[in-house]
Amino acid sequence: MPFCRPQGEIHYISENLGEIHMKQDTKCMTTCAGHSPVTVSIEDSDNLARRIKEEYHVHLLVDNLPCATRYEVSDTHEVIYENGYRLGWEENGRYFVNNHLDIILRYHQPSPNVYRVVGFEVQPQSIDSSRIKFGNSQECTVGDGGHQEVKRGENKILWTYTVTWEESAIPWASRWDTYLSMKDVQIHWFSILNSIIVIVCLSGFLSVIIIRTVRRDIAQYNKGEDLVGFYL
What we know:
The protein is about 30% helix and about 30% strand. The chain is built from 3 helices and 16 strands. It is a multi-pass membrane protein.
């Protein structure tokens, strides 16, 4: 995935994209240094469009907690969560990338001066880079316009984000409940249960075969003892 290059010498840091400070809200900011969009080569643009077509998802971690996207079902108004967020979407043969993230972090305060992250929600958006403006400060503003399209050829994409902290009553021990109730997680549980049933059935068949084999060997052994006693 094409992204901005760090300034200066590059140092490898495992699974570390950046830092977010506890309880410090951040308005619209660029992920990359400066206000210039990232130039995406023709090859990288083709790869990005292909991954959007194949419905790739992006997964982020904060305090070992994965991000989730919130959706509301229009008919039932049920709120559901999806693991990660979608890289983009396809519409009439055109590809659009989510280049802006509204990051919502929820924290629980069990005692004074103790804060624990208990929720990590992401609301992705696709914003045309020409809509993003900068004033005298580092903060950006978004004007009216379209989405960030990944066109054929070279593209210029500006990556931005906001951070909002919200206090939550969810304790540390229950912070994974949202992820365990996801639809795809339930599918994984069904797959695990199905595998366990198959293993139990195979173990039962194997046990029956072993028992029958042992019984046959014992019967033949006893038959041999009877013949020896008869000859004597």
